[in-house]
Fold this sequence. Notes:
seven-stranded mixed sheet, 0% helix, globular, mainly beta, 11 strands, 52% strand
Amino acid sequence: VQLQASGGGPVPAGGSLRLSCAATGSTFTARFMGWFRQAPGKEREFVATINWSNGITYYADSVKGRFTISRDKAKNLVYLQMNNLRPMDTAVYYCARSLGVVGLARISTSYTSWGQGTQVTVSS
Length: 124
């Protein structure tokens, strides 16, 4: 499977962006599709994930109430709607696929396929 993330860019604080992740490959399957981010000098961190089958979502506390993850199963697309963006949200955002269990859904090592990342820059 190949994952292609898009939709990043510069945005002022308080603004919104919607990231997209397209999954291609024959017979795409997933347990979870997630978004992670990595800011300069920091470790990659969990942002949000969605159970591909039932749509149940999980969020990092830092984005809860501001970000919404969703999916379009028919098109193999995952979205991350980001509202009320803050400078602390500045990072490269990655989409990823996990075939693991729900207990590991927030853990990056559970994700075995990664997109190339898209830069989000929030100015104050």
